[in-house]
Each structure stands twice: as C-alpha cells, then as structure tokens.
Amino acid sequence: MSDQFKGIEPMVYNSKINVPYSWWAGDTASKFYITLRDEKKIMGTKCTACNKVFLPPRKVCPSCFTENTQWVNISDEGTVITFTVARRQFAAIPNDRKVPVIWGMIKLDGADTAMLHYLDEIKPENVTIGMRVKAVFSEGRKGTIRDISHFKPVK
Ligand SMILES: [Zn+2]
Predict the structure, then answer these.
(1) pTM of the complete model
(2) Rounded to the nearest whole angstrom, what is the distance from the C-alpha of residue 115 to the centroid of ligand 1?
(3) Ligand 1 geometric centre to CA of 120 (Å)
(4) pLDDT 10s digit of each residue in the chain, 155 long?
C-alpha cells in the first residue's frame, strides 16, 4: 500500500451485477427441454459402448468418449442420493421459492447419474437419503429444467 492511502479506512461495497445472456442450447439439450416441455417426459442418453445412461443427456459419452449414444426414456421417479437445506433467502433462490428450500441430488430410475433439483411437499427434517421421490411438472412449461417444478415424496 502506498503512503497516499495510509490512514484511510478500507471499505467493502456489496452489490449485485446482472449479466443477461443467451446461447443456443445445442441439439441434445434442445431435444431434452422440448420433450420435457411438450410431453412431460424426461429423456436421457445411453452410451451403446459402455451402457451408461446419462441425465441430463450427453451427446458424447463422458466415460468412453464415443458419440454412439441413443435416446432413452427415464422414469419420473427416483431416489434421493443426498440433499441440503437453505434456511436463509439468497440470490440463487428464485422469488417463487421460500425458505427453507431443499435441494436434492436425485437419481431417477433408469439413469446412472443424478440430477440436482428442488425437493418440496415435505419438511426438511423428514427428508432422508434413499427416500423415493417423484417429479411434479410445472403448469406453464417453458422448455427449462424448471418445467419440473420439484420432486415430492412417493407415498
Ligand atoms: Zn460410454
């Protein structure tokens, strides 16, 4: 620090920046989102070489790097692999979500990978690893991952 700043109290200014952007989702993600929006179906890709099923779908198998993948239907039910609870509102939580917000890593039946999404219709203290959950689709679907509103416990 140079002498000219000696004696000046260091200040921290907290703010937010908003950076709008858009990009082409690509043919694989486009098919995934359109099918989710129009048919309320969750689709993944299966590698024909190593047989792993990826959700979200991948154009190239991240395990063996082949492009030999095929589309497969994934169940809308699965298992909670892990979860976390946010008890304070912060910027990453959309305005339509109120705390406590529960995020779960959910491995849907038929997939070898897990996806991150909201768990709802359950109190945080009642969520357990290994519990069975089912997708609840949004009413006004727009072709985003939020076309799945959340996952709820299977009764
Ligand atoms: Zn593979």
Answers:
(1) 0.84
(2) 19
(3) 33
(4) 568 888 888 888 898 888 999 989 899 999 999 999 999 999 999 999 999 999 999 999 999 999 989 999 999 999 999 999 999 988 888 888 889 999 999 999 999 999 999 999 999 999 999 999 999 999 999 999 999 999 999 98
State the residue for tokens 């260091």. Answer: 10
The answer to whether position 102 is within a domain reads yes
Number of domains in the chain: 1
Per-residue buried b or exposed e for 114-126, using 16+ beta carbons within 10 Å of the residue's own CB: bbebbbbebeeee
Question: Does the residue 8 lie in any domain?
Answer: no
In a domain, 118, yes or no: yes
Q: How far is the CA of 49 from the centre of ligand 1 (A)?
A: 5
Distance 112 CA to ligand 1 centre (A): 11
- For residue 51, the enclosing domain spans 26-153
